[in-house]
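Re: that backbone. Tokens:
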């Protein structure tokens, strides 16, 4: 387990990072002049390289207890395995009671099932209305955010026929209470919507001053967790009777962000130990609750092999695998026994 640079921008550790970057740049300029190499072209390449280093260090400077996470999360000698590849934007993760895995390819309007026993991938629907987030409801149906069709679909898992259970609003991610109440986010209008479990009516549950994206529920279902897409904040909003929300809520988790400030916070899962697993611009992160940062490190696992941001992260129901989405690819990797418990 390796601790990395910590503290605020006035700390000796932080100055050490910037002195290192400045020294590296100066050293390469001198060497390139002595060798008669084109300084301009190599300088550009070197600046780009150093920027990537700074990009990785950004969240590590901001969070005093930040760790590289592979040895904290993954089983010894485990490797990433490809679940599915060749997608335009793989999203939305869900499992049924038999352990079968489901996901969407948003731009291509596809819904897939991966068989638990064989790993075989089966196309279930090729016209999902650009479905994004998906979740099983207490009635056994699979619900999905069909943004392209401005509706929430529900699929019958016996026939895979679908019906629209609500129409009129765009949607991105979804969370469902045990009583059947459906919540979904609409980032474009900065709003969260609710489908009433008894009447089926569509009601605006909450307006925000920021772009809500990823959505989940606390394990006791008393708190709706909402990821603020272009930041490092995950908000917790109390769920009251009949699924009403006690807006505006408060920041419940904070994660590392790049120097741009654009955290790209997306699909997430609360863990039994109180931490949060989430896909972000910096890769996979595991964050302690806000105010508890001193007792538990912020864990950052960069996207493997140069892949783009992690747009979804979930642990399989059997607690064996971490599943993650990186636009074109869905990967999984074995985790240490008891992680997140």
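Recovered sequence:
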């Amino acid at each position: 387990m390796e601790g990395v640079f910590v503290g605020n921008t006035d700390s000796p550790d932080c100055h050490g990072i910037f002195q290192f970057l400045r020294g590296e740049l100066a050293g390469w300029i001198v060497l390139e002049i002595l060798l008669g190499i084109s300084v301009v072209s190599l300088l550009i390449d070197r600046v780009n390289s150093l920027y990537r280093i700074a990009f990785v260090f950004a969240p590590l400077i901001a969070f005093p207890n930040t760790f590289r996470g592979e040895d904290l999360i993954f089983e010894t000698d485990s490797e990433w395995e490809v679940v599915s590849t060749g997608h335009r934007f793989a999203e939305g993760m869900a499992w049924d009671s038999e352990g079968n895995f489901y996901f969407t390819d948003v731009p291509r309007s596809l819904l897939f099932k991966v068989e638990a026993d064989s790993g075989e991938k089966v196309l279930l629907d090729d016209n999902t209305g650009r479905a994004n987030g998906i979740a099983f409801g207490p009635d056994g149906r699979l619900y999905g955010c069909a943004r392209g069709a401005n509706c929430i679909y529900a699929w019958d898992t016996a026939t895979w026929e679908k019906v629209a259970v609500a129409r009129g609003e765009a949607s991105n991610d979804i969370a469902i209470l045990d009583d059947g109440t459906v919540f979904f986010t609409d980032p474009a209008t900065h709003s969260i919507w609710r489908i009433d479990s008894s009447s089926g009516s569509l009601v605006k549950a909450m307006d925000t001053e920021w772009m809500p994206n990823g959505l989940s529920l606390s394990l006791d279902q008393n708190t709706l967790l909402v990821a603020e897409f272009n930041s490092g904040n995950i908000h917790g909003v109390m769920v009251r009777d009949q699924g009403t929300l006690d807006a505006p809520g408060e920041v419940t988790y904070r994660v590392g962000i790049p120097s741009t400030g654009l955290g790209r916070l997306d699909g997430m899962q609360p863990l039994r130990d109180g931490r949060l697993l989430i896909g972000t611009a910096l890769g996979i992160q595991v964050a302690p609750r806000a105010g508890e940062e001193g007792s538990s490190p912020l864990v950052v696992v960069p996207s493997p092999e140069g892949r783009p941001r992690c747009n979804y992260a979930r642990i399989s129901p059997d607690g064996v695998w971490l599943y993650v989405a990186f636009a074109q690819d869905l990967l999984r990797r074995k985790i240490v026994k008891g992680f997140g418990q």
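Confidence is low (pLDDT under 50) at residues 1-61. Helices lie at 12-34, 39-62, 70-73.
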